[in-house]
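anyone seen this seq b4? input:
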Amino acid sequence: MKRPITPRGYELLREELLKLRAMRPELSMAIEIARGHGDLSENGDYDAAKEKSGMVEAKIRDLEAKLSWAEIIDPKNLKDPEKVVFGVCVKLQETESGEERVYQVVGADESNIEKGWLSIESPLGKVLIGKEPGDIIKAGGAQKEYEILEIFIDDL
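predicted toks r here
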């Protein structure tokens, strides 16, 4: 099952994977040092080192899986989108408060709402797909209303 991701998102996952793989020798050394401290049944350092190593290995497997499922979609290849699709940026205005926000619709594995990267699988992301400027949408737990002001491609 392929999952959409932007080139930036793919690169961020790949960099994280490389950092974690680079930690392997250090984690292995910590386990060996702790093993040298004696009885493993009562060795807290050994248990902690094994646990940390296990967590890093699990994260490595998770990132490898995400990268293998990734379908890289480059928003730069879109030509003046008239509707919201994966990769575009959307300028929204909350109709009640007038507050404006800009989101880029991205894959679930790269979403980060603080950075304005909205998952295509989120409730708001799902509602936005296929909409165009001037459309009013409702989303969120409070069913806030938003007007789509603009759709554009950001230089990533």
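The radius of gyration is 22 Å. The helical segments are 7-22, 24-35, 44-69, 123-128. kinda curious what u guys think
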